[in-house]
Amino acid sequence: MKLLEGKTAIITGASRGIGRGIAQVYAQHGCDLALTYSSSVEAAKALEEELQPLGVQVKSYQSNAADFEQAQTLVDHVLADFGKIDIVINNAGITKDNLLMRMTEEDFDAVVEINLKSVFNMTKAVQRTFLKQRHGSLIHMSSVVGVKGNAGQANYAASKAGIIGFSKSIALELGSRNIRSNVIAPGFIETEMTAKLPEDVVQGWRNGIPLKRGGQPEDVANACVFLGSDLSSYVTGQVLNVDGGMLT
Ligand code: NAP
Q1: What is the CA(200)–ligand 1 centre distance, in A?
Q2: Would you say the CB of residue 139 lies under 6 angstroms from ligand 1?
Q3: C-alpha dihedral, 179 to 13 to 212 to 1, nearest 10°
Q4: How far is the CA of 93 from the centre of ligand 1 (A)?
Q5: Is any ligand 1 atom within 6 A of the Cβ of residue 188?
Q6: Is the predicted pLDDT of residue 193 greater than 80, yes or no?
Q7: What is the pLDDT of residues 27-74, one digit of tens each?
Q8: How many CB atoms lie within 10 A of CB 15?
Q9: Domain layout of the chain by residue ranges
Q10: Domain 8-242, architecture per CATH
């Protein structure tokens, strides 16, 4: 059953990893897709070509999620190209890990701007459209690290915890207009990035997870289908852990 037929979604950071996985599953569910990336032009074009045969409208846009003006311009372009926006998935994110002792101001600011300010930028940019049409689903990608903290990731954890506070506040502000705002907190998701790590290290991580495996981008994507579709029409202000039971 196609759960997103007739809907249009913006997915930020869709050229690789989890964002790419969400785009693939959304396309299978009939969703038209506006995909963003930072610099991976080739990968974004390849994904467009992969998804178009599924019969959905797909277009990729180079847009820096950390830039307020670029978020406004992106939404203008998507409205011109697609006519409407039903779902925004704020997925773009980076890490610049270090112990506080060695963390630079630049590394703190970059992570907060790309991971957290981006969520403000996109939500502001799409708010008017959502208010006018009296519906919209916002899905923000946090992390178990934003819920629990992690040594060596104070900047990342702060940005991901900030997303949770932001999302709950927006859920309260915009609920009366049928605009929903929810967070997904993935655990250890196996992407191209983790494929480069030694197998024994990755196996050690897997052993520590109650479900005894790392997550796949598809696991996160399926949670995004639920939160983007009408199946979750009475769900807002929530944090959904997609972590194999890691935080249990
Ligand atoms: P990834 O493979 O590194 O992909 C990051 C994506 O974000 C890429 O498409 C990248 O575009 C884009 N991006 C980076 N900076 C951007 C910017 N300034 N503006 C627009 N797009 C930008 O990351 P991932 O592992 O899939 O993670 C996706 C999200 O899930 C992130 O928010 C991450 O924090 C969160 N998360 C991941 C895990 C995990 O285990 N992987 C766990 C918990 C949470 P380019 O290709 O052009 O650089």
Answers
A1: 24
A2: no
A3: 60
A4: 4
A5: yes
A6: no
A7: 999 999 999 999 999 999 999 999 999 999 999 999 999 999 999 999
A8: 24
A9: 8-242
A10: 3-Layer(aba) Sandwich (3.40)
